[in-house]
Specification:
25 strands; 4 helices
């Protein structure tokens, strides 16, 4: 069985790369669930060529994205490969407006000013490089329920991490809100945390020239890389590592107080802004994310039967027999930004940093090809921005 060793490698990578999105792990698990929607017994055979599309269009500027991945085996290692060269668009079915998403690193991103509004109907259209066309069923954007309060509380023992054989510190996110009476409400929470980023680019076995890293022999250095300071203020953006949902079956029309909806491991002690997003989901979208949550929560028990195949609202336009893993969701959110000071925390951060003296390229008497530099631009992406987040102090 390839599963345990694969995820062991993936967990090791996660511990060293805090920007890895949780859907990478989730998608890999979904490869096991290829089949009908009814619960099935787990199968541990790896299958290549499975397409997974995960799209989210939101009312929050700069937060809409589409991921397109394929299961592959490269150099004997099984994993996921981001599919480049696709055409990705979302269409407003009421106005006919079509918005194109641009390829950026390992996702397709909407224009920074794109946002959806309650009452609108949207669908996703993906044209793969080989011409295959995938579309989603129409998604209606529901009116979000306002957040009345957000609490972000520090916990020196946030959660147990096998990779460090102990507890890691961090913060817990809790929300309060008034659940509307007389209607079914399904909630999904996400967040983006923004921290100042000192170094914009690290060049391993190389130096930064002409807008990119170029290979160079650094065998004479103890640390065989150089870090390059951001030319302007720059913030790194992190995302949740879990799926957080809730339905109002037992709280219809009541006040929900102090509901924990996320956690923030202490990767650094940099102060941060946390942008908490509370989405209102359609019943179909909630059902999908419930399956996703069950998969993630039960990921440690590989012999437990999966709850259902991770199949959402996507289909192959020309092949009704193909199962398409993933989902396109369009949802509006209530948003609250909170500034969090962390400089006085006693516990050690998870991510370690080398002192600048050992990581910066020398600019005086440099033995490397000119022009010597310590600076690099803050390039906009899903994980980085030069736009100051609301609430920053």
């Amino acid at each position: 069985m390839w599963i345990p060793s694969f995820f062991s490698s993936l967990d090791n990578f996660c511990s060293n790369n805090f920007l890895l999105r949780p859907f990478t792990r989730i998608v890999a698990i979904s490869f096991l669930l290829y089949g009908c929607i009814d619960p099935v017994s787990p199968e541990f055979d790896y299958e290549e060529g499975l397409i997974f599309i995960e799209g989210f269009a939101t009312s929050n500027s700069g937060a809409s994205y589409v991921d397109i991945n394929e299961s592959v085996t490269e150099f004997g290692v099984r994993g996921l490969k981001f599919i480049t060269g696709a055409s990705v668009n979302v269409e407003n079915l009421d106005s006919g407006l079509t918005i194109g998403f641009e390829e950026s690193e390992d996702a397709y991103l909407a224009p920074l000013d794109f946002k959806v509004s309650p009452g609108e109907r949207w669908k996703l259209i993906v044209v793969m490089p080989n011409g295959t066309v995938y579309e989603s069923e129409p998604e209606i954007v529901l009116t979000p329920v306002p957040i009345s309060n957000v609490s972000i509380d520090y916990d020196a023992e946030l959660e147990f991490r096998p990779s460090v054989n102990g507890f890691i510190p961090g913060h817990r996110i809790s929300v309060s809100f008034e659940d509307p009476i007389g209607s079914e409400n399904n909630y999904y929470w996400s967040y983006r945390s923004f921290e100042n980023l000192d170094y914009c680019i690290r060049c391993n076995e190389g130096i930064y020239r002409n807008g990119g890293c170029i290979p160079y022999d650094l065998s004479g250095r103890l640390y065989r890389y150089f870090d390059y300071i951001c030319e302007t203020e720059c913030w790194t953006i992190r995302y949740p590592e879990s799926v957080n949902i809730f339905d109002d079956t037992f709280s219809n029309g009541k006040t929900v107080t102090g509901l924990e909806v996320g956690s923030l491991p202490l990767y650094t002690k940099e102060n941060m802004v946390v942008e908490v997003q509370q989405f209102s989901l359609t019943p179909a979208a909630y059902k999908y994310y419930k399956v996703l949550k069950d998969i993630v929560d039960n990921a440690s028990g590989f012999n437990a039967p999966p709850p259902a195949a991770l199949i959402g609202n996507l289909y192959n336009v020309n092949d009704s027999e193909e199962f398409v893993l993933g989902r396109f969701t369009a949802a509006a959110s209530s948003v609250v930004n909170v500034f969090v000071e962390r400089e006085l925390i006693n516990e050690a951060a998870i991510a370690t940093r080398q002192p600048p003296a050992v990581s910066l390229e020398p600019t005086i008497g440099s033995p490397y090809p000119p022009p010597a530099t310590n600076l690099a631009p803050c390039e906009e992406s899903r994980y980085r921005t030069a736009i100051e987040p609301e609430g920053w102090q």
